[in-house]
Amino acid sequence: MRLKLTISYNGALFYGSQIQINTPDTVMGVLCKILQRVGIKSVPIASGRTDRGVHATAQVIHLDIEPSWGEQQKLLRVLDHHLPPSIQVRDIVEVDKDFHARYSAKVRCYRYIISNLKPTPFEYDFITFTRDTINLELLKDSAKLFEGVHNFAYLQKRSSSNTTRAISKARVYQHGGYTIIYFEASGYLRSQVRMMVALLLAINNHTITQNELQEQLECKKRHITTPAPPNGLYLCSVRY
């Protein structure tokens, strides 16, 4: 029986989402350990990886279990009991055997949260703070440059053989005193979202211009090479 699980996690407490050989402290590593503890040997497959410090409000994974588990709510109660507070299973539904959390995904959505107010100790791991005044209209206009199909070779952390991606939506808006940068795409390169945010923040503080952003997007010249901090980034939705 194949199940689709929607989970949330506090990325500040993990070394990324993917299982790693050198540390058990990853989201999937902890989840695998708990699953094995309750007698489930299947390895969970996620819709995609998130870097160290990046959060998720709606990561999707799939998992194969024995039908003897019965209704999904039983597994939900068991996982809720065993998982640490930093990982929460929001929902479990049965899906067809051909469903794949990664390869069946059509759209992946990310939000990046920014504030130019003084941070509190309770916000620091979850929001990126800047001392610069937020020029909302400039950010809105600049974010639109990412929409469409581009070669993102100059906006990635590690080289990839296929660097073409299509951004279907790039928006900037304010909510609850925070500035939100939002992206939708079928997929992204490693750290691509954080690089796009870094370019927008550089435009906001007048380190670079929109023309220079365009130069980097067209692989003519690198102006920004350091991604924005991970703590403001959230995988917020995966659509199938």
Tally of DSSP β-strands: 10
- CATH H-tier superfamily of the largest domain: Pseudouridine synthase I, catalytic domain, C-terminal subdomain
Write the CATH architecture name of the largest domain. Answer: 2-Layer Sandwich
N-to-C series of helices and strands: EHEEHEEEHEEEHHE
Domain tally: 2
Low-confidence stretches: none
Give a short account of the largest sheet. Answer: 10 strands, mixed
Q: How many angstroms does the end-to-end distance come to?
A: 19 Å
> What's the shape?
globular
Structure description:
With 240 residues, this protein is of the alpha+beta class. The chain is 21% helix and 30% strand. The chain has five helices and ten strands. Strand 2 (45-46) and strand 3 (55-64) form a beta hairpin. Helix 3 packs across helix 4. The chain is globular. The relative contact order is 0.18. The model has no long low-confidence stretch (mean pLDDT 94).
Topology diagram in text:
Layout: E1 2-9, H1 27-37, E2 45-46, E3 55-64, H2 72-82, E4 87-95, E5 107-115, E6 128-129, H3 136-143, E7 148-151, E8 164-175, E9 178-185, H4 192-204, H5 210-217, E10 233-239
Parallel strand pairs: 3-10, 5-6
Antiparallel strand pairs: 1-3, 1-4, 2-3, 5-9, 5-10, 7-8, 8-9
At a glance:
21% of the residues lie in helices and 30% in strands. The protein has 240 residues and is an alpha+beta fold. The chain has two domains: 2-95, Pseudouridine synthase I, catalytic domain, N-terminal subdomain (Alpha-Beta Plaits, 2-Layer Sandwich); 107-239, 2-Layer Sandwich (Alpha-Beta Plaits), CATH 3.30.70.660.
